[in-house]
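Hi P.,

Sorry for the delay on this. The queue was packed all week, but I finally got your sequence through. Input first:
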Amino acid sequence: MRILVLGSGAREHAIITALLREDAGHEIVVAPGNAGIAEQVEVVHLDPSNGAVVTEYALENDVELVVVGPEAPLVTGVADPLRSRGIPVFGPGKAAAALEGSKTFAKRVMDAAGVPTGRATRVGTLDEAVTVLDEFGAPYVVKADGLAAGKGVLVTSDRDAAVEHVTYWLQHGSVLVEEHLEGPEVSLFFLSDGHTVVPLSPAQDSKRLRDGDEGPNTGGMGAYSPLPWLADRFGSEKDFVDEVLDTVATPTVRQLEHEGTPFIGLLYAGLILTEQGVRVIEFNARFGDPETQVVLPRLVTPLSGLLLAAATGSLGNHEAPRFVPTPAVTVVLASEGYPEAVVSGREITGLDDALAVAGVHVTHAATARLDDRLIATGGRVLSVVAEGKDFEEARGRVYEAVSRIRLEGSQHRTDIAARVAGGAR
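Then the structure:
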């Protein structure tokens, strides 16, 4: 199958790695890609958010499936012109992608579908925000309503910091103030063809920059899958997944179908397990990063068939996704200054040494070739991924590989999956 993947990050590299693992002879083209992706497949310099250009390329090159990786092209509607020309697309159209593009829209859909989530109030002025912050009380949860590249959420007990965050994001649009929810967080992906909804395996990521969940929120500093501790709370991981499928994912997809905006693609449910039950923190309209880097390596069922079935409305006739029980762990290597003041352009070395560690592969997020040198071009640079017979082995491998990579000033967390490897949450 000739497949066009849109995007340039580690998530897209993970998708491509899974497609290549099928050994099915796929012709894969990526726009715009990165240095690591370019070493494996063809890359073309297209703007992934330009629907007209992407559609023209897909038609001229007999593309049989388009997979949209990042949120920005989805929210701007890149899937719509492709779908209107009969090209199968894995990714929702603009109307359904508002589930990620507008937190207000997502809350409305959840309310209509009866999906459990926290209380939230949309504010448009600082005076409104201060009133609601005082009503909800600390800890304060403030979220930019639109896309914010992982930087729009603040959870703090500092009222002044909450007001400052509101003040900044009100320059860019409305803001949501939400009640604070307590409990462990879980990411769970669902494939959808607009009606049928199929779950993948859950993962847990680490959003905070530093060990112990300290420091600012980021796009994610690491993740692991599966989550054995779910059995202590729900009887089994499958029982948890089934509950979320029945109470969150299916009602949401059916509500959007009812509204005439079918959701076709990947529904990412960001969940929190409170004492009162499972609650939705947020929805995304695409594979999550870095969770994709640990979920897809465990997938046994060919990914291409699942994506095509979702894109063509035949997911109900496809075999259910199967996963190996063994774990995967990923650690993100970030540039100096991330996430506030990124220092980029520095050389990366030691990748071959890292890849020599058993069970390890590396997905590129922000890399480029400059002459013969590999350089970092952004904040989150690489996702180092390791599989193992258990979490202890997977963690040992991933951190051995990370130790062999050199990037001046780089930073990474040292505690990804540490608790589960030690037998506790």
